[in-house]
């Protein structure tokens, strides 16, 4: 009963941001996955440890295993659901590597033939989008790029896969 209540009241943080439960589509004991405010391709989602830690090296072995097993499961489901044929999985580990949210996260991007003119442009796009987002956050303290309804609707769609 106690644990049931705790689960119902679970709150998710992605760095400094409180994430609404309707934006979370997958959870395990140690990890959660959320839809993206600014996806660079359809189905670009993020998997995070529940514990708020900044760097990959800060994770315990259990958290690391759980995070990657979650990413494997999510990537595989999203790839077939979105009729993609490959996946890009990436971590920007630290600010000089492009990390803008100080909370470990794996980017999962379902990939399709020809989605970028040059294949590795995907990494540039992740980075450019981040700089724009940061400027926007600094300027107006708003995080609305996609609407919360749009994000919740996508999370419902993805949650149904698990
Ligand atoms: P990184 O640059 O690797 O730190 O990636 C940050 C990612 O988080 C980007 O894909 C952003 O679009 C995404 N993002 C930032 N803030 C939020 C938020 N509040 N909810 C969902 N996604 C977010």
Automatic annotation (TrEMBL):
Q: Look up the domain of life of the source.
A: Eukaryota
Per the database record, which ranges form the HIT domain? Answer: 12-118
According to its UniProt record, which residues of this chain constitute the active site?
105
Q: Where does substrate bind?
A: 36, 92, 98-101, 107
InterPro entries cross-referenced by the UniProt entry: Bis(5'-adenosyl)-TPase_reg, FHIT, Histidine_triad_CS, Histidine_triad_HIT, HIT-like, HIT-like_sf
Q: Which PROSITE patterns match?
A: HIT_1, HIT_2
Protein keywords: Hydrolase, Nucleotide-binding
Q: Which Pfam families match?
A: HIT (PF01230)
MF terms in GO: adenylylsulfatase activity; nucleotide binding
Residue window of motif Histidine triad motif? 103-107
Name recorded for this polypeptide: HIT domain-containing protein
Q: What is the lineage of its organism?
A: Eukaryota, Viridiplantae, Streptophyta, Embryophyta, Tracheophyta
